[in-house]
Amino acid sequence: MKEQTIQFEIPAVSSVEAINYKRKQAIFKCFKALPFWILISGFIITIFGMTFSVLLNAFSSEWYGTILPKSYTAHWFLKAWKEYDIWSYYKVTIEITFVSTLLSLCLSIPTAYVLARKNIPLKGALISFFQFPIMLPEIVYAIPLASIFYEIGLAETIPGLIIVELLIGIPFSLVILIPFIETLDSRIEVAAQSLGANKFKLFTKIVIPQLMPGITSAAINVFIRMFSTFLTILLIAGTSTQTLPVMVFSVLQSAGSQPAPEIDSLTISLMFPLLLFTFASLWFSSYTKRKSRK
User: Is 272:280 a contact under the CB 8 Å cutoff?
Assistant: First the structure.
């Protein structure tokens, strides 16, 4: 019995038709992505436009009815720093933030190691519990905390503000450190233990050096988060323990009686360290990714 083969005739497609088809597909993809790029461009232009406008106004000596200021000066910065004593608020803010960041790292590094490496009871529930201060709106825990702190006498004190910052900094640090520890090679720790290293040496000589990129990333991000903490500090801080964000907010409430360039110079004084640490965080993140690929 002879096998019957069926042959189909494939119509020939000219190269011109193929090029036109690809061109139409490319144009369709461009139109499809157009709303996305319009939205992203509008967002970036709005954010950078407002920031650039505030920066120019803070350094302008006269800016009425022109696209750019007619001349520039640092007078408003000098006036704002002298009139509002900004340096004293910087010192209080940096003191609270630095101590809180250091304590957060000291407490969160061993906690993150246990949660990442050990199978303890209620491990998932504990990790979820530590994420609450990050997920919940700040107002949910700020008012009860303020009430408790005023009752026990910790409100309007530097130790009270540091404790409040720790409640925010420790969970934030844990969220960053746990994934870092999970990526470390546990066989190195097993080898060190087999060679006689005790738990202290294992942690300080093996785990900590490998974890330095994660610790640095956590330190920068926790510092930024604590430096900009506003609502909880506003409710608890007194006149001598106000941080820079709270002071700037107080001045902005009376913005109608102050020159606009002076208010903008205050805003820039608050934004500068936050932008500096944000760029440092982005650079360090990019640096560690490049190093891990090598």
Answer: no
Name the pTM for this structure: 0.75
Decide: helix, strand or coil at residue 118: coil
DSSP 8-state code for residue 256: G
Distance CA 139, CA 144 (A): 9
131 vs 159: CA distance, rounded Å? 23
Alpha helices in 153-243 (DSSP H): 158-183, 186-194, 199-201, 208-227, 231-236
Taking the C-alpha atoms of residue 75 and residue 262, their distance in angstroms, rounded to an integer, is 9
| Cα–Cα distance for residue pair 280/259, rounded to 1 Å | 32
* pLDDT tens, N- to C-terminus, the chain (294 residues): 444 555 555 555 567 778 888 888 888 888 888 888 899 999 889 988 888 888 888 888 877 778 888 888 888 888 888 888 888 888 889 999 999 999 999 999 999 999 998 888 888 888 888 888 888 888 888 888 889 999 998 888 999 999 999 988 999 899 999 998 988 888 888 888 888 888 888 888 888 888 888 888 888 889 888 888 888 888 888 777 888 888 888 888 766 677 888 888 888 888 888 888 888 877 877 777 677 666
- Most distant CA pair in the chain: distance in Å? 106
**Length of the chain, please?**
294
Q: Give residue for tokens 């005790």.
A: 198
Q: DSSP H helical segments within 228-259, as ranges?
A: 231-236, 244-253
The CA–CA distances, whole Å, from 12 to 16, 17, 18, 21 equal 12, 10, 11, 15
The string of DSSP codes covering 60-81 is: EEE-SSSSS-SEE-SHHHHHHH
**What is the identity of the amino acid at 150?**
Y
